[in-house]
Amino acid sequence: MKTLFTLAFTMSAVGLMAQNANVVTAYNEMKDGNLARAAEFIEPATQDPKTGISEKTWRYRGDIYRLIAMGEDAALRQQFPDAVDKAIESYIKANELDTKGSYKLENGRALRALQVTALNAGNDAFGGKDYNKAIACYEQSERVAKGFGEVDTNAVFNKALAYESMGDAPNAIKYYKEAIAAGYVKPDVYRYIGALQRKANDVEGALATAREGRAKFPENKDMVMDEMSCLLTLGRADEAEASVKVALEKDPNNALLYSVLGGLYDKKASMASDAKDEASMNKWYDLAEEAYKNSIAKDANYFDAYFNIGVLYNNRAAYEYEKCNAIKSDTDYMKCKKVADDIYLKAMPYFEGAHKLDPKDQQTIQQLMKLYGKMGDQAKFQKMKEKLGK
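The structure assignment produced for this chain is given below.
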């Protein structure tokens, strides 16, 4: 028995020495730049009962795969496609085994570098439309952040974008919401969620999202309009109007709210126009015009109000032109056309006001070019045409 015990002990010692030698060899190969061979030697050491519980083994393994993942050798990265995962796994394991904290700062720096590498790799994959790879990379970045007790909100948000881009709306919504919960609170995130919900015919859900977003960003016009749009889709136009009016009672000098109210009336007018209800159409157009003008009165530099009044006159004129097309009498047609032309030309000072505020807006330039052409003002027409690069 004594002989057998001695033999067993000797064999165990030989095994330990072999694995220690592997760790040392792996380190030396890494220092010499032979990373593939370094990986070949370090792997057996991680499986050994002795060296596998050594902080040094896992730290070296992390260094080897980090250098592969972050190196310039594309062929080597292709040979080890999971290098980032292995490096992250290794440093996390090394930190767990480093009970004295001797290398926690060093391992932490390495993990932060890998987090940036993973996030950038995800962005590259996203740009190349390899969304599955992008998601995997973003999850690597998240994993590192989690190890520090953090949430990588950029990675979570980007992951949601990737899911949306690949047509997976449920997961996109899930991770957009997770990004918000983690502190990535921006108006666009609420709007992305709402848009996906509306696409899935979940208008009630989109309304709830718009209202949640408005609570965070009450001055954001787009989300106000999203809420109004949802209410109108749900047939709750009166509720939409009442909501804006309540807001105006609290903030009567808010140009944005008047503009939103104008937009609401504008939509009602459009619906009446489609229904050929001319009396209702004119009523809502008049109210929309009044609201937009109130918006300008509160803020003379409010581009949207100028532009929207111009569009309003365009729409009213279009309705009149459509009526004219059904008239067979030349005399009556010309009278009708004169009415339509007069309405159409009322848009000019408002589009000019919008152009003054934003000289580069292409839609405004296009509208002015049409108006100047209608008036026969060739000089102004040509100027707008040149601005469009035509």
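Interim note for the steering committee: Residues 67 and 73 are 10 Å apart (CA to CA). Residues 2-31 form the longest helix (30 residues).
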